[in-house]
Structures are given as structure tokens and as C-alpha cells.
Write a structure and sequence with these properties.
It is a single chain. The protein starts with a helix and ends with a strand. α11 crosses α12 and α15 runs parallel beside α16. By secondary structure, it is an alpha/beta fold. The protein contains 17 helices and 29 strands. The longest helix is centred in the last third of the chain and has 20 residues. The strands form seven sheets. The protein has an eight-stranded parallel barrel.
Length: about 750
């Protein structure tokens, strides 16, 4: 074997043997070491041409403090070949293995001290997932062998200090070498401006599992979400972006597996570069990567952006009593925030651990992951779970933290949509309104105010006024705009919209936790009966309340977020924490639009979204001033009592069930793309949460000569606009618990 071609032939034969588990050809020997030095960059496993043009894969792993690292390659029969990585550059262990091609399964064993009292938990008996693995093959099960400590040690108070030496390789999934061969030249990102965005929170599996138009073999998968039947619903509804519940590779918790349940939502990440393999219809040996990319392209082609809900605040390894799957065994002290007692973890997430984002290599892991999903997987933005935990410096939340500073100057990440869940569970973790420009935030104060108004629990309407008009009290600083507020009434976490008006208490018995899980602060009202009922009067009121809530959301200034299925009357049977319900409780029932009681809801939602898209006054790019804009005294935003008079300061402090909001379309700040002033129709929205009808006097000139009625939520059928015209100054009767939307005529 002397020529380069002969050498590559032998290397290829050895690589094929490693890939499918066959022994290498007799006498086959690589010239020189089986692991060449390779390079420390990039981290992870990258297939490429090596020295002399030999095909192979470069492996690089940051493992600060480790004493040795073994690369473990697995054949199709489960056989394991261990190759020491002897090259160490700036705490990165690396090597190039010729002949290793895409599809190869691999993991690491990392050697070092076992000293839990100082936070050192190295254990080479445990096979570890590469934090940079771009595909994962196999499921996580959690037998005792997967734990770094002896899980069933008789003295549980010290169990985490006793090292378990049983091998875990048979029980954990493996990383997969992936080939970068996708062409994005035909992809066109929608690049929807923030002010024009409507977000649709959706679960890949739950959205597609029961859809009759999606072939059975594609249900529950990325390919299912890319199917024309799924895309058509999104387009006809009128949303501009899907916000996918976690699609990073995640693991199921031990307490769920013991009860025969699974983690459905996916907020238990273990692979920040890998699309969750269980959502792939095409295979898990790297095919999931291409399937995810094709889904993104299909959604982009329909004008829909893809936003990922990402969980960088903690991992699936949980507390010191959790399994050893990846980071804990690579460098526990380097990746996680430890408490003063280094055996324990600082837990700002409620999930047992918190990533130590202040550490440069942890910050690099997160930002490398984010850039990968943007540049190589095509996504358009991120919603950061418990973002306050990422913004902590050493202890306190710090808006000048390394994480936020890095994002703000990154040339890739500062251009995509960034949404913060602006709180965590630690002291000082509630940070709504505090994130810097570039960021938008889930606004739970909007959720609470709107829920309380419609259930009759607001002491006054001061907070409601701020929420409906863009929450300037929270966001009018530092150049932030109304679209910094992501307005929502429901989210995956909590009641669905239908359950919000059907249950006053949670009903989480199916979760197996004695109904102790899930929030008790639901701010819900069951309309007179708990749960499903045959009382048609109660059901009619519930449907009206759902229409009220949806209409309020879609008329408010800011970015509206809908939860998949709410537009069809989806129910979870009162479960407000369906995180482990991978079944009909958590999946969307696509038969609902065929039911007479819910058909009109879908039509109303679509109609309101068309109205929103057509009228810039409903999606303002700047806050209202509330001051007269012309000599006639007309304001860009005005508030009215039922008597037709502008609200005084005293009215804001009074308890009331009725409020009128006037939006002027002639006073919209800013110009269009051609530099022309932006003008629009003007609207009056009347929100009445009272149990009895009320006469509302429509403001006359200069506000309007007449008004055309567009929406009346007291009506079941919203397929046609009511169309009635009322003169200004007339008192119109507003039905109990309803919204009227009127357009200024003429």
C-alpha cells in the first residue's frame, strides 16, 4: 500500500466496518496512527477531507479539567471501538479519524477525578453524548446504569457521592456524524417585520397526530408539519410565524417513565444541535436533519417564519441525583452553576440545575447552537425559556450580562427574532419590561389583565388601558416599540382558551401527581358550571367569552400569540399542565371545526387576522401619544366611558365593566417604503364585560359622523360582517359580555 489512492481504499474499508459493525478487513492497517491529530475547531464531529485528501471525520470536544478522553465508535450490532484522543489544545480534545463517514454513531468517555464534594464527577464508565452532536440515534432510558452515582444506594442522603462503575453504553443514544449537503439557494426567508407578525405556538407532534389530511406515516413529524394540509391551515388562518415547542433533542424524566408517561412538551433538552429524533419520519441516522430543513423550506415558501422555543437554562441531567448523559460527565464544574456546597446545584429553573452561562465555553455552546439553527437549519428566531436565568451574571439578573451582550453584537443573531420569557424561579427573576432593545418579551401582565377584565375581577381599568395599547409603561424606553410586547392570553403552559372559560380549578389527575402540579393562579371563570355541561345557556356564554378573549387579543397593539387549537375550541379537559400528556389530551382534535358550536370561532379568528393585516392602525410601529394631533382636538388614541365622554383620571381609578378604545388611522407615525405618510381607517372598539346590556353612546364629531359595525361577538355567526351603520352620538345597546368593533364611516 503505497499510493494515496490505495491508502484511501483501506481507510474506507475500515470506516465501513466501523459503521455497520463488521470487523475490519484482514490485515487492514492504517498508515500511522488510527487517530490523526486533527484540529480543535470546529467543535463536534465534522465529516471532511483530511490530510492527503483522505475522507474522514474530525472530532473535537471541550472537556476542561479532564485527564483523558476516549472517542467511542459504534457498529450496527452495538460493538464499540474506543479510540483515545491524545491531542489537547486550549482544553479541547481532538482527533481526525480517517474512514469515518456520515451515519457513524459515536459518543465519548471522559476520565478524571471523582470528588463530588468539590463538584468533580468524572466517570468513564458512562458513555456521554457530544454536546455538539447534530443528530442523535436511539432513546434515553433511565436504568441505574445511566447514573454516574449508585442511584439505589441504601443511604440516599449520600447516594450521589458513590460512583457507579457499571457501563451505560447499551442504554443511551449515540451521536451521529452528519454530512452537510443541503442547498439553501432556493430558500426565501419571509422576514416579516415584527409589527406585522402573528405568532402561532404549535407542537410538531400534537398539531399533526390527528390531522385527517396528513398521511398516517407522517403524523407527529416534521414532514407532517410540512405537508400541504398542515400548511394550508396556517395560511388560511393568517398567522405569519410558527413558534415550535422544543425540537432540540430531549430526554424523558425518570419519574414520568416510572408512571408510564413521557415528557411531551420537550423542555428537557440534552442536545442543542440535534433535531429531536422522535419527530422524524425518514429515519434517525442523520435523516432527521434533512427532514427538518425541508419542513423549514416548505413553511418559508408559504410565507411563514419558523421560531424555536429553546431551553438553554438547564439540561435533562437534573440535580445531583439525576442521570449522567452528557455535560455532567464532561465537566460538571465547568458547565453547571454549583451551590456553595459544590455537591449541589444552584437551581434558578426549578428543574434541578442551571447552565453556567458566564463561563466562556458554555456561552460559546449556546451561541454556536443558535447560529447553527439560523445559518444551517434555516430558522428565523428563538423564544428563550426562562430567559432571566440566562441573563444572570454570578447571581443576580444583569441586563449587561455576557449572554445579552454577546447576542447584541453577534452579526447573525442580532438580525433574527428574539423573544424572552422574562422570568425564572430565582430571587429577582421576574424581569418583564427589563430586557434591552432587540428583544421582545412574553407579556404575562397582558394575559392577567385581559383575563381579569373578562371574568369581572379588575378593580379598575388602568392596567387594561396600558395592555390594550401596547404596554408603553413597560416598553417605552431605550428605543423599544409596541411590538416588544408579545401579547397572549393562553400558552402551552396553562389552560386552553376553551378551558379558561370552562374550569375554575385545574384537573391534572392524569399526570399522576395528585393534582399538585400546575399553577393554581388560573384567573379563569367557568361561566356557572365546572367542566363539560349539557346546559346550552352555559355553553353559549362560554363560546361568547372565547370570542371576546380572541377579539381582544387580535385588536390589541403589540404582537399577538395564538396557541394552536384555540381557534377551534380545543380542550385539555381542565388539565393546565399537560407536559406529560402525549395523547388525545395534548393533541389537537381536528374534528372541532365541523361542530356547529365551534365552526364560527375559526371563521372569526381568520377574519380578525385579515382585518389586522389590512389595517396598519392595528399593528402600529410606534406608541400612541394620546395627545391632540390636529386643531380639531382629535387624538391618535382616546378612551371613552359608556356615556360617550372621554375618560377622566377618576374614571381610570373607578371599577367599570365597559370601556371604549378609539384608534385614529389618520395619525399613524412613520412613513411607508416610498416615504409617503401612512394613513388608515379609524376604529372604535367597545369592550363590555358586564352581565347586563349597556347603552354606549358613540362619540360624535370630531371623532366620527358615523360608524359601521364590523364585529359583534354576541353573534355566533361571524362569517358575514354585521354591516349596520350608526350615526355618531347615537346610543347603541351593547349585549352582555361582548365586544363591538366599529369602523369610522366616511
Amino acid at each position: 500500500m503505497s499510493s494515496a489512492a490505495d491508502q484511501q481504499a483501506v481507510q474506507g474499508a475500515v470506516g465501513d466496518a466501523l459503521l455497520d459493525g463488521r470487523p475490519a478487513p484482514a490485515g487492514a492497517r492504517l498508515p500511522g496512527p488510527s487517530v490523526w491529530p486533527g484540529t480543535p475547531m470546529p467543535l463536534g464531529a465534522r465529516f471532511r477531507a483530511g490530510p492527503g485528501g483522505a475522507d474522514g471525520t474530525n472530532f473535537a470536544l471541550w472537556a476542561g479539567g479532564a485527564e483523558a478522553v476516549e472517542l467511542c465508535l459504534f457498529g450496527g450490532d452495538g460493538s464499540e471501538t474506543r479510540l483515545p484522543l491524545t491531542e489537547l489544545t486550549h482544553e479541547i480534545w481532538h482527533g481526525f479519524v480517517p474512514g469515518v463517514r456520515p451515519g457513524q454513531r459515536y459518543g465519548y468517555r471522559v476520565h478524571g477525578r471523582w470528588d463530588p464534594w468539590t463538584g468533580a464527577r468524572w466517570n468513564p464508565a458512562k458513555l456521554l453524548l457530544d454536546p455538539y452532536a447534530r443528530a442523535v440515534d436511539g432513546d434515553f432510558s433511565l436504568p441505574p446504569e445511566v447514573y454516574g452515582h449508585v442511584r439505589d444506594w441504601p443511604e440516599q442522603e449520600v447516594a450521589d457521592t458513590v460512583r457507579d462503575t457499571r457501563d451505560s453504553a447499551a442504554y443511551v443514544p449515540k451521536g451521529v456524524v452528519v454530512h452537510d449537503d443541503d442547498d439553501w439557494s432556493d430558500d426565501r426567508r419571509p422576514k416579516t417585520p415584527w409589527a406585522d407578525s402573528v405568532i402561532y405556538e404549535v407542537h410538531v407532534r400534537g398539531f399533526t397526530m390527528r390531522h385527517p389530511g396528513i398521511p398516517e406515516e407522517l403524523r407527529g413529524t416534521y414532514a407532517g408539519l410540512a405537508h400541504p394540509a398542515a400548511v394550508e391551515h396556517l395560511v388560511s388562518l393568517g398567522v405569519t410565524a410558527v413558534e415550535l415547542l422544543p425540537v432540540h433533542q430531549f430526554a424523558h424524566e425518570d419519574h414520568l417513565l416510572r408512571r408510564g408517561l413521557r415528557n411531551y412538551w420537550g423542555y428537557n433538552s440534552i442536545g442543542y444541535f440535534a433535531p429531536h429524533a422522535a419527530y422524524s419520519a425518514s429515519g434517525t441516522a442523520g435523516q432527521q436533519v434533512g427532514e427538518f430543513k425541508r419542513m423549514v423550506k416548505a413553511l418559508h415558501a408559504a410565507g411563514i417564519e419558523v421560531i424555536l422555543d429553546v431551553v438553554y437554562n438547564h439540561t435533562a441531567e437534573a440535580s445531583e441525583l439525576g442521570p449522567m448523559l452528557s455535560l455532567r460527565g464532561i465537566d460538571n464544574r465547568g458547565y453547571y452553576r454549583l451551590a456553595a456546597d459544590a455537591r449541589r446545584y444552584a437551581d434558578y429553573t426549578g428543574c434541578g440545575n442551571t447552565l453556567h452561562v458566564v463561563q466562556p465555553h458554555v456561552l460559546r455552546l449556546i451561541t454556536d447552537s443558535l447560529r447553527y439553527w439560523v445559518t444551517e437549519m434555516g430558522v428565523d428566531g428563538f423564544r428563550f425559556d426562562l430567559a432571566a436565568a440566562l441573563a444572570r451574571s454570578m447571581h443576580d439578573v444583569d441586563m449587561l450580562s455576557p449572554f445579552l451582550a454577546t447576542i447584541s453584537q453577534d452579526p447573525v443573531l442580532r438580525r433574527v427574532k428574539l423573544i424572552a420569557e422574562p422570568w425564572d424561579v430565582g430571587n429577582g427573576g421576574y424581569q418583564v419590561g427589563a430586557f434591552p432593545p432587540l428583544w421582545t418579551e412574553w407579556n404575562d401582565r397582558y394575559r392577567d389583565a385581559v383575563r381579569d377584565f373578562w371574568r369581572g375581577a379588575l378593580p379598575d381599568v388602568r392596567d387594561l388601558g396600558y395592555r390594550l395599547s401596547g404596554s408603553s409603561d413597560l416598553y417605552a424606553w431605550g428605543g423599544r416599540r409596541p411590538y416588544a410586547s408579545v401579547n397572549f392570553i393562553t400558552a402551552h403552559d396553562g389552560f386552553t382558551l376553551r378551558d379558561l372559560v370552562s374550569y375554575e380549578g385545574k384537573h391534572n389527575e392524569d399526570n399522576g401527581e395528585g393534582n399538585r402540579d400546575g399553577t393554581n393562579d388560573n384567573r379563569s371563570w367557568n361561566c356557572g358550571a365546572e367542566g363539560e355541561t349539557a346546559d346550552e345557556a352555559v355553553n353559549a356564554l362560554r363560546r361568547r367569552q372565547v370570542r371576546n378573549l380572541l377579539t381582544t387579543l387580535l385588536l390589541s397593539t403589540g404582537v399577538p400569540m395564538l396557541v394552536a387549537g384555540d381557534e377551534m375550541g380545543r380542550t385539555q379537559g381542565g388539565n393546565n399542565n399537560a407536559y406529560c400528556q402525549d395523547n388525545e389530551i395534548g393533541w389537537i382534535d381536528w374534528s372541532l371545526p365541523d361542530e356547529p358550536g365551534h365552526r364560527g370561532l375559526l371563521e372569526l379568528t381568520s377574519r380578525l387576522l385579515r382585518l389586522r393585516h389590512a389595517h396598519p392602525v392595528l399593528r402600529r410601529r410606534a406608541f400612541f401619544s394620546g395627545r391632540p394631533q390636529a386643531a380639531d382636538g382629535l387624538r391618535d388614541l382616546a378612551w371613552f366611558t359608556a356615556a360617550g365622554a372621554e375618560m377622566t383620571e377618576g374614571d381610570w381609578y373607578a371599577r367599570t365593566a365597559t370601556i371604549g378604545m378609539y384608534l385614529s388611522g389618520r395619525d399613524i407615525p412613520g412613513r411607508d417604503a416610498r416615504g409617503e405618510p401612512v394613513t388608515d381607517d379609524s376604529f372604535l372598539a367597545v369592550l363590555h364585560a358586564g352581565a347586563e346590556p349597556v347603552d354606549f353612546r358613540l362619540p360624535g364629531p370630531p371623532w366620527a359622523e358615523a360608524y359601521e359595525l364590523l364585529v359583534d361577538t354576541a353573534r355566533e355567526d361571524q362569517a358575514r360582517a354585521p354591516g349596520t351603520v350608526h350615526p355618531g352620538g347615537e346610543a347603541v345597546t351593547v349585549p352582555p359580555r361582548s365586544v363591538l368593533l366599529l369602523r369610522v364611516a366616511g
